[in-house]
Design a protein that fits this description.
The chain is of the alpha/beta class and 344 residues long. Helices cover 50% and strands 12% of the residues. The structure holds coproporphyrinogen III.
Length: 344
């Protein structure tokens, strides 16, 4: 058997009796060893910008669970930070960014060289790749322009994205310009991650849900298509995974994006629909409700089995339908992985 990581074989279109497995937010507060390093680093951002410690927490879940892929430890909000917004994480309140972006602050963004400013992230990629065995893949990532823009415009996590739709209709050209800048910066950032050693990249569009079609197409599908195309043109061997959360059957529009290789599905998506409509076009990744991993036991195994059965004859990557939450018992994660890998 070649050393080609199982994840990359699946992204290249190869089905597998036991799918490769990794989990969104596999590194994080649910792991005691993460909490230890996080305390040593100081703040969450200090951890993101410390290549030795960030690489260490990237590798922790691989050591503990022997997962098929590591995902770079960083955050989607490092791009706004590199563009000059002040960023902090208030304990229990999620991220805060200041000042909120206005047409005046936008001007300074174009000239910012995110690849220069985010150099520690690429060092984390290099250190992690060096510490990872050749049969494991390293996934780089960025936020999708729309999701990143929502944080930049609201200064925090949105409770109700309808205010942004209103903003978009009133100031569409400004938001379009912001998304266009983020698209360019994200392309530079992901290519630099690939050059530092990332084997594949994933784009998280966590706030794509609930947008009416023409808006979704303009702010999410088209920018992601441009990112996928630019990456494939510059680095043809790097697979691109899109995770458009909450878009329902509009996921088919993302699957039709020529230069992407896989679509991450969220926990609200009917997996049978994904099997019929996405699998003919692209590798499917994920789906299992992270709350089932909090619950554990037979309910978790029964649902995991549903995904395994549905996707047994097509390329599939086992993952969740969103990230692991801090209250997840690590033993449930171990049980899930053991269940996926058992002979059947
Ligand atoms: O998946 C991984 O293990 C890799 C690392 C990773 C983090 N964030 C680490 C993190 C990845 C891929 C992300 C992506 C991310 N960040 C997204 C997209 C995915 C999603 O969850 O929808 C978003 C929207 C963000 C923005 C963000 N970062 C929020 C809203 C928060 C606060 C929420 C919370 O859990 O407190 C963060 C902080 C964050 N990013 C943490 C981690 C481990 C927790 C920070 C801590 O240790 O205190």
């Amino acid at each position: 058997m070649s050393d080609t990581p199982k994840l990359l074989r699946s992204l290249a279109g190869e089905p597998s009796a036991i799918p490769p497995i990794w989990l969104m937010r596999q590194a994080g507060r649910y792991l005691p060893e993460y909490r230890e390093v996080r305390a040593q680093a100081g703040s969450f951002l200090d951890l993101c910008y410390n290549p030795e410690l960030a690489s260490e927490v990237t590798l922790q879940p691989i050591r503990r669970y022997d997962l098929d892929a590591a995902i770079l430890f960083a955050d989607i909000l490092l791009i706004p930070h590199a563009l000059g917004q002040k960023l902090w994480f208030a304990e229990g309140h999620g991220p805060r960014l200041e000042p909120v972006v206005t047409p005046e602050t936008l001007k300074s963004f174009r000239d910012r060289d995110v690849v220069d400013i985010l150099a520690p992230v690429f060092e984390t990629v290099r250190l992690t790749r060096a510490g990872l065995s050749p049969d494991k893949a390293l996934i780089g990532f960025a936020g999708a322009p729309w999701t990143v823009a929502t944080y930049m415009l609201a200064g925090r996590s949105l409770k109700d994205p309808s205010s942004l739709r209103e903003h978009y209709y009133k100031a569409g050209s400004f938001i379009t310009e912001l998304i266009d800048i983020l698209t360019d910066k994200t392309i530079d950032y992901l290519i630099a991650q690939i050059d530092a050693g990332a084997d594949a990249v994933q784009l998280f569009d966590s706030w794509a849900g609930g947008l009416p079609w023409p808006v979704l197409d303009a702010v999410s599908v088209r920018p992601l298509e441009r990112i996928a195309r630019s990456i494939k043109t510059a680095r043809p061997n790097a697979p691109v995974i899109l995770f458009p959360k909450g878009v329902g059957e509009k996921a088919g529009e993302y699957a039709a994006v020529k230069h992407c290789d896989a679509i991450g599905i969220d926990y609200a998506m009917d997996p049978s629909w994904a099997r019929s409509n996405i699998s003919p076009l692209k590798t499917v990744q994920g789906g299992l409700d992270p709350m089932l991993v909090v619950a554990g036991g037979r309910a978790m195994e029964r649902e995991a089995e549903t995904y395994l059965k549905l996707f047994h004859d097509v390329p599939y990557i086992f993952n969740l339908g969103h990230g692991l939450t801090p209250d997840t018992p690590p033993a449930h994660v171990a049980a899930l992985i053991e269940f996926i890998r058992q002979d059947r």
